[in-house]
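Task: complex structure prediction.
Instruction: return structure tokens for all chains below.
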Amino acid sequence: MNSSPKASSPGSFPSGQSVNERLVSLGIELPDPFMPIARYAAFRRSGAIVQLSGQGPILQNGDGIFGKIGRELTLEDGVKASRITALNMLAQANSICEGDLGRIVQWIKITAYVNCTDDFFDQPAVIDGASNLLYEVFGDVGLAARAAVGVNALPMNTPVEIQAEFEVSV
Amino acid sequence: MNSSPKASSPGSFPSGQSVNERLVSLGIELPDPFMPIARYAAFRRSGAIVQLSGQGPILQNGDGIFGKIGRELTLEDGVKASRITALNMLAQANSICEGDLGRIVQWIKITAYVNCTDDFFDQPAVIDGASNLLYEVFGDVGLAARAAVGVNALPMNTPVEIQAEFEVSV
Amino acid sequence: MNSSPKASSPGSFPSGQSVNERLVSLGIELPDPFMPIARYAAFRRSGAIVQLSGQGPILQNGDGIFGKIGRELTLEDGVKASRITALNMLAQANSICEGDLGRIVQWIKITAYVNCTDDFFDQPAVIDGASNLLYEVFGDVGLAARAAVGVNALPMNTPVEIQAEFEVSV
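Output:
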């Protein structure tokens, strides 16, 4: 049985740097995690598997990136939006892991929805903004299975929404 | 490691009322669960985790709610549709649990697709119809991780489709 | 607790034929599995559960089926595209299982995205192309929980993308 490809030791880097130390050395500051404002949960954990609620490119100060890719937003705007979305995913994960992202054994899956025009076909390049951030921070542990699809509308007219699933050591 | 937020004892309420008794006191009558009409399964269970096939706002008598939100349907129509969709989810769950919904330990995740116009951005409010029903019936056990996205078309021109995942005691 | 409906012994048929022998007798030749070209994984496994990255109707020689159903593509084109997509899913699964598809205990879930016009409502019939292939090859083991939704755009303008999850014996 093949295991996940290129699996590295969870939450560590060859240098011995922890994931949270890695964040600091990358100059990445995590935002506060968003709390649900309706009858759902920010996340659910069953055994070692954590499911996050959908995240978007909304900043803590109320700002965010809004609009449709292929119309008022470019591919580059979308890449930036998916990177911010991934930062919000990490903020949730960091809270769940009580400040120790090294507890994440593997990012299992991300499902990414890109708000775009009918003739925009480069959803994968948009979502590379999120995937590259996960790889920068986690190394091979951050290589999740992935699907990226286009949609015609997203909440608050954001350009990107991502659902994520990861495994933690318990 | 943080557990799921506000976890309560599975399938019970402070009053000692069972989930199925709760349904009765809420005046909720479950429809018959829909059976697949093609080569797929109504649900799959692996260990304690159950995955339901996508459900929609179709009534047992063949009626249902049809149309696109933002065009011929309003937000309120969508809320009603997502509540009916959740009733169909409960009907499936009740059948899987052999009439004892108290076996559900937690609703883990719902992924909700809203058939809407390009300029409709309130998918979360539509899906509150389903999330509120889960909370009324299950309390904190019903607070699932959630994603809500817009789409341009759904099967049979229904306005809402929801995929759900829950954990049962085995 | 109800188990999955119509569960058969994993990876075997009454005739004693293995799944891979079945492929041969059906005249099905699996393509080579696609490798990710960005920072994500073709699949992730956690315990017995495998998650595949989204697959589409792309052929190994660079050809594929492209376009939107309801505009330049018909329902029949879509059925063919979803069957090819399922072949790519099987190619990934076969690689993960080191050439023994009989290790698959059950196909748990498929989430299918159909690139279509706003007035196309037969996404389930499109995805029957994939579901029927899974059933031909795996029998009841291939009956996954399923959701099929429409979307306005997919990567490379493909008409179908499918995310799949299955359980393996470990």
